[in-house]
Amino acid sequence: MSNTIRILMCPPDHYDVDYVINPWMEGNIHKSSKDRAVEQWQNLHNAIKDHAIVELVAPAKGSPDMVFTANAGLVLGDKAVVSRFYHPERQGEEPYFKAWFEGNGFTVYELPKDLPFEGAGDALFDREGRWLWAGYGFRSELDSHPYLAEWLDTEVVSLRLIDERFYHLDTCFCPLSGGYLLYYPPAFDAYSNQIIEMRVPEEKRIIIDEPDAVNFACNSVNINSVVVMNKTSVELKQRLEKVGFTVVQTTLSEFLKAGGAAKCLTLRVNEPIREEVHANVSVESRVIHLEGHLLDAGIMNQALDLIVEIGGSFRVLNFNLGIERQSVSNADVRVSAPSHQIMEDIMTQLIELGALSKTEEILNAKTETVTMAGVSPDDFYVTTIYPTEVRVNDQWVKVQGQRMDGAIVVDPTTLTADCKLLRDLRVGEQVVVDVEGIRTTRKVESRDKRGTQEFSFMGAGVSSERRVELVVEQIAWELRKIKEQKGKVIVTAGPVVIHTGGGQHLSHLIRAGYVHGLLGGNAIAVHDMEQNLMGTSLGVDMKKGIPVRGGHRHHLKVINTIRRFGSIKNAVEAGYLTKGVMYECVKQNIPFSLAGSIRDDGPLPDTQMDLIKAQQDYASILEGTDMILMLSSMLHSIGVGNMTPAGIKMVCVDINPAVVTKLSDRGSVESVGVVTDVGLFLSLLIQQLDKLNSAVSLTV
Ligand code: ARG
């Protein structure tokens, strides 16, 4: 027995479940028995008295949860950080606890008014005194942790809680003497679990299962080798005994109705200081600025959600809602993260949403030098499809050649910045690293524009069959407009276009001057020519829809013949190939690029088997494009998407909704997905164009 440990409790004179501020309280309002509560509390008091000195704070009327003294504050030596309750329901307790700390000789520290921190309920010292485990996610704010570190001069390890049943750290986590840790891992996010595992060796981790967790087994009072708790399974009891603990069970069912048990009802008020332990916080904070149609475009939700999902926390410092329909909103948000790595992950995604880091003076982008050709310094900023600017010599410089998945190379002497693929990096080049001094602009889509005849496509969405015709109408209208304005339309197409009978329609589009470049692979060309030379597509008769005897050899024969000609163009010029998609490309002088792959038969002489070369060809054909039609070719379309900056209209057609979603999910409204048979889509498109052009007759 040790009399040196002092524990603060509060008699349950006014205890009841009067409101709901955690899931345990739901359905329990005024359902607890006063007499039983008093008896259970008394039993706990007795159990603790056997091992420690119990001190009492006077209960206050109107503060039913004051029995949970763990939430009074956090104590170390003669310092006490008094709690700032998250819920107004408990804020009335603050002055009572503060008075008690002051009256008992503690130096009291108070957090800023709007910064919640719920005391020892969310902050538990490692029993060896090496550091403080601090929880956040429900009640306490991550931003309170640096204050704890500074005031108590201790290292703070932040852990994020993710299960609302375990809203306070002490409901699912209990450091025990000897470096043991009793805890319930599913209550924490992956990063926190990793931190716990790094700090506590496996043989010291006592992991509990859900049934024990919901009995609040982690909510234990540990006094030397004694562990006092509400209830434990036989198995857990044995595990604890095996490593030298004595388990004392004392029923606290009445308090469970309020979401608390043994540990919640106590506060250790003489935590010893370890001289060699000092402050060390890894919590990072920064303020970001967001501007645009933050609500309409869902940017605000996305930003706040991603901060929390990645493991940070936020506080909206101010939000100015655009008053008029057209006006933009802006917001300043303070973002906090438990480590530099997490802060960078969050910032990268926020930059993608158009956020700007709001430091007093805007810092120049950090760069590092390439020391190995084709390899970037680690930590490089990975580019997106959005127009990006980087800060060089105190000026914002626009990044040229914007595309996804590149690195940004800056030249401070010429004040230029270029998007470069890793493989193109040369020794000595300066690559932007970290997230400082980088901003992206998301086009502010005005409500007006979205509503008008402009290419609205009903926002970025995947259309169902019902809406296909409507979408096709808009695409036809847009194609015509681009043609009139002498714009550029590129098609990526897979062999399905031919198998579904879309070849004739695509040929038609090319012949009529709507297409200015074709991107595909070996297969589309092979099957297109097979159809036009032999009437089959992959051996299937295109008119009857049935396989032709020996048809599987057709496409190889075609490949062989074209190989003899030396190129598709030669075959056209020799009068051998007389119709079809490839024929029209040659005839209309439309550039095409066929990118090879491992499964290609032949390949055709035109197929580029050097993939780096093929990527370059694609990129050069795509330059200056206004619109891209992606027709049933996932691989080529994804490749194209990566090379294309935001702002270019994209239409992705595929029978598989998953493919369409994947392709059209670029977070910009200019892309639209159409889930339908591509042959049908093309035939509808031709019909629509015909309607629009009834004056100009299109002959097939
Ligand atoms: N009803 C109280 C609340 O929701 C219970 C507090 C339990 N205390 C604790 N340290 N887990 O705030």
What keywords describe this structure?
binds arginine; L-arginine/glycine Amidinotransferase, Chain A; seven-stranded mixed beta sheet; eight-stranded parallel beta sheet; 700 residues; alpha/beta; single chain; conserved putative lor/sdh protein from methanococcus maripaludis s2 fold; 30% helix
Tell me what the structure shows.
The protein is α/β, with parallel strands linked by helices and 700 residues long. The chain folds into four domains: 6-281, L-arginine/glycine Amidinotransferase, Chain A, CATH 3.75.10; 283-358, LOR/SDH bifunctional enzyme, conserved domain (Alpha-Beta Plaits, 2-Layer Sandwich), CATH 3.30.70; 362-445, conserved putative lor/sdh protein from methanococcus maripaludis s2 domain (conserved putative lor/sdh protein from methanococcus maripaludis s2 fold), CATH 2.40.420.10; 461-699, Rossmann fold (3-Layer(aba) Sandwich). 30% of the residues lie in helices and 22% in strands. The strands form nine sheets. An eight-stranded parallel β-sheet has the order 27-36-35-34-28-29-32-33, with helices on both faces. The protein has a seven-stranded mixed β-sheet with strand order 20-25-23-24-22-21-26, with no helix packed on it. A four-stranded antiparallel β-sheet has the order 17-18-16-19. Helix 14 packs parallel to helix 18, helix 14 (503-511) packs parallel to helix 22 and helix 15 (522-534) packs across helix 16 (554-565). It is elongated and about 105 Å long. Mean pLDDT is 90; it is low at 445-461. The structure holds arginine (ARG). Arginine binds at residues 21-22, 65, 68, 70-71, 90, 121, 168, 170-171, 258-260, 264.
